[in-house]
Amino acid sequence: MAIPFDVLAEPSRRQILDLLLERPRLVGELTEHLGLTQPGTSKHLRVLREAGLVRVRRDAQRRWYELCPEPLAEVDAWLAPYRRLWTDRLDALERHLDTMPESLDATGEPDVADVPDVADVPDVPDVPDVPDGEAR
Amino acid sequence: MAIPFDVLAEPSRRQILDLLLERPRLVGELTEHLGLTQPGTSKHLRVLREAGLVRVRRDAQRRWYELCPEPLAEVDAWLAPYRRLWTDRLDALERHLDTMPESLDATGEPDVADVPDVADVPDVPDVPDVPDGEAR
DNA sequence: AAGGTTCATGCTCTTGCGGTTATATAGCCG
DNA sequence: CGGCTATATAACCGCAAGAGCATGAACCTT
């Protein structure tokens, strides 16, 4: 089964999942929160259903949509090998701050530039970053 | 900063990240692996760059692209509240299997249907699942 | 039976995205 | 300098995705 990144790429669909994280909901309820039309909501729900991210229970004319988190495990699995990269960096930052507690950064933002590179570029004459395409 | 799900939705871009997970690479190298044209690769790299997922170092005419995993932390953060849901289910499965080791499932696949529902639908007369839209 | 809810589906329109081709830019080497 | 290499950008195209509207289907209520 393909990783459902494309399904999650849609903000409304992520919002639906977030809402279903609290509790199961009716289509009308979701529609109200999303601020789009009911057919629009239904369409997103269909995509989520086919991706196995939600389940439906019928109750007369109503449909209770509930979360089905299993496919998200695949996203988590894809993320796994990357996770250690930024935790490594954060660890390095912590060690750094631990070594020199006089460091004057008030922000909690990890100052990546301060941390020794995890993956080193093979013997490239360390040229400053390319401003190149950045300025569009 | 918005969660870069839309950037990750593209298979080629995920593949690029996977390749950069090993080591920094040149555009040509990536192009070869991806099986698309060089401009196509450059375009994806631009998107990844603007999302802060990769960095560039220039080396004469060459460009070494390297991974920049920090934005993935946001994905991880979004995933966090969901993670406990499926781990809960797996835990329940483990406890289940622990209780009755005579269980005859040979597969390692978690048989979710066996696990008691985590979130229960509020007093809906438990009607069987809707085959409804599924059959297209 | 009639009318009102609640939701799904079909259609159309528009936009954006991914892909390719052609071209521009930058730097190397002979 | 001239040509070659490596990459970015521009212009264009086709298609699929998302949004809205109108309609259909299922079910309740009276």
TrEMBL record, chains A, B:
Name of the protein: Metalloregulator ArsR/SmtB family transcription factor
UniProt-listed PROSITE patterns: HTH_ARSR_2
Residues covered by the HTH arsR-type domain: 1-87
Region (Disordered): 101-136
InterPro entries: ArsR-like_HTH, HTH_ArsR_DNA-bd_dom, HTH_MetalResp_TranReg
Biased composition annotated in UniProt, kind: Low complexity: 113-124
Species name: Streptomyces niphimycinicus
Keywords for the protein's UniProt record, in alphabetical order: DNA-binding, Transcription, Transcription regulation
PANTHER family hit by this protein: TRANSCRIPTIONAL REGULATOR, ARSR FAMILY, TRANSCRIPTIONAL REPRESSOR SDPR
Entry keyword annotation includes DNA-binding: yes
Keyword Transcription applies: yes
